[in-house]
Specification:
Elements (H helix, E strand, L loop, with lengths): L9 E8 L5 H10 L7 E7 L4 E7 L2 H4 L2 H5 L5 E7 L14 E5 L2 E11 L2 H10 L9 H13 L4 H11 L2 E9 L2 E6 L8 E5 L2 E5 L3 H4 L4 E5 L4 E5 L6 E5 L8 E2 L1 H6 L5 E2 L2 E2 H16 L5 E4 L5 H13 L5 E2 L3 E3 L12 H11 E3 L1 H4 L3 E6 L6 H12 L4 E6 L27 H7 L4 E4 L2 H8 L6 E2 L1 H4 L1 E2 L7 E2 L17
Helix pairs in contact: 4-5, 5-6, 9-10, 9-15
């Protein structure tokens, strides 16, 4: 994907170890999650007496020096990488968010987006809470801190979960105890892993792999995981249950690393299956099939394999080379610069393309600008035909769950048919994958996926938008046990 594509917002991690400082394992894990956020990075640790933190803007490698890690004492901690979708793009919203209060210290990392943060912020501000940022993570932290003054740890988390609505996977540190929480619909990923001397909570299993650990399982929707402070184990509390989940299908389509396992599926295998389904639904017998690097690669591999099994003379080729040194911060102040950006990031290999019919596989079309320029690039170097195949359904509506995916007005598919989009990007043909094919590849029912961006109907109660289910908000039942 290039600059005009969707952007994920965050990756979270938490560790509890037996007698070893947590800072470096957290640092390595954040490196493994760097694709989920490049705006800021941070770590908070606890040494049994006090909390230590370091948060800075930029990539993980830029945010931490050796001295910073040396100053983060303690065998427990949490970490965060951020790409902002709620709150300002500055250090005030960088995470983990830390707060000290009467009953101790609190650190919190959040992946997701609340749909009622403003309402809770106003309530807490009226009670005297002072906010230092405009992000929703601070809202969660203040509400949890308030509940911790009146209840034990598990009950306090449950009370906060009963008030916040939207998508969230959290790693939390209360004094020297690390927790992981996944929202009741399971919209954002979170998993548990074991390493030689402790346990890890992370957005993706790739962060466990980098520590030579083993994936234990996914955190269940509505589940609270409490790591033992000495790294010896963890406790589980299923605080809320729903009849249906709302897993984000785009995690598998684009955001997650191909080597991660999410909700029981290896992302690489899912993408290959999506590619195979794309051939079955809309295959075209061209000379060459090529991915838009990097996220289109597994799709194209599965597509080409399915085509060859059907006897089509399709050759898989890497016909587009990506410049990895042009990042998301590339400045594009003019139309000429925006057009130049695609050529800076993607360069076609003429010998692979010239005189051939080409099928290009990408994960999505958002605004359409990149696809238009890409089709023109390939025709400029001699492609006879350019067919676009997309490994996801058309994006017709914005995401309110923490993905920076543009407004309705910017989404090319919000008011155009597939045929109209194909004409606009000047492709010889264009086809998207169906929603049913996505559900099939994920081995989930449509009812258990968040499909808001491709249907316009959301699994949460969002003002001005349709919901795809009866909203079932959690309610605290007086003094019922926290794990009932």
């Amino acid at each position: 994907m290039t600059h005009s594509g969707p952007r994920e917002k965050c990756g979270v991690v938490g560790v509890s170890l037996d007698g070893r400082d947590a800072a470096r394992p957290l640092y390595y894990s954040l490196y493994a999650l760097q694709h989920r956020g490049q705006e800021s990075a941070g770590i908070v640790t606890h040494d049994g007496f006090q909390q230590h933190d370091h948060v800075d803007m930029g990539l993980v490698g830029d945010a931490f020096a050796e001295a910073d890690l040396d100053g983060l004492a303690g065998n427990v901690g949490i970490g965060h990488v951020r790409y902002p979708t709620a709150g300002s793009v500055d250090s005030s919203c960088a995470q983990p968010f830390s707060v000290s209060f009467k009953s101790g210290s609190l650190g919190l990392s959040h992946n997701g987006n609340l749909v009622n943060a403003g309402e809770i912020r106003d309530e807490l501000a009226a009670l005297g809470h002072a906010f230092t940022s405009d992000g929703d993570t601070e809202v969660i932290a203040h509400d949890l801190a308030r509940n911790l003054l009146e209840a034990d740890l598990v009950r306090a988390v449950k009370r906060t979960m009963s008030r916040i609505h939207g998508s969230y996977s959290l790693t939390i540190m209360h004094d020297d105890t690390v927790l992981g929480v996944r929202d009741p619909e399971g919209n954002r990923p979170l998993c548990i892993g074991s390493i030689d001397d402790g346990y890890v909570l992370a957005s993706e299993s790739a962060a466990i792999d980098v520590l030579d650990g083993e994936l234990v399982r996914d955190v269940e929707p509505g589940e609270l995981i409490v790591l033992q402070p000495d790294g010896s184990g963890f406790d589980s509390y299923r605080l809320f249950e729903r009849e249906r989940t709302a897993h984000c299908f785009f995690e598998h389509v684009y955001f997650a690393r191909p080597d991660s396992r999410i909700d029981g599926s290896l992302v690489y295998d899912v993408r290959r299956d999506l590619g195979r389904a794309l051939w079955e639904e809309s295959g075209v017998d061209s000379d060459v099939v090529m991915p838009v690097p990097d996220s289109g690669r597994a799709f194209a591999s599965g597509y080409a394999e399915a085509a060859q099994e059907d006897g089509a003379g399709v050759e898989f080729a890497e016909g587009l080379m990506k410049n990895r040194y042009v990042g998301r911060t590339f400045i594009m102040p003019t139309q000429d610069a925006r057009e130049r950006a695609v050529r800076l990031k993607l360069n076609p290999i003429r010998d692979v393309v010239e005189g051939k019919t080409v099928t290009v596989i990408d994960d999505s079309i958002v605004r359409g600008t990149t696809s238009t320029q890409l089709v023109q690039l390939l025709k400029d170097v001699g492609a006879e035909e350019v067919h676009m195949r997309i490994g996801a359904p058309p994006i017709v509506a914005p995401c309110y769950m923490g993905i920076d995916m543009a407004t309705r007005e910017e989404l090319i598919a919000s008011d155009k048919t597939t045929e109209e989009i194909g004409e606009e990007i000047a492709a010889d043909s264009l086809a998207y994958l169906s929603i049913d094919a996505v559900a099939g590849a994920l081995e989930e029912s449509r009812a258990d996926l968040c499909l808001g961006c491709v249907t316009g109907e959301y699994p949460y109660d969002i003002e001005g938008e349709a919901t795809d289910r009866e909203v079932d908000r959690p309610v605290i039942e007086g003094e019922a046990p926290a794990d009932d």
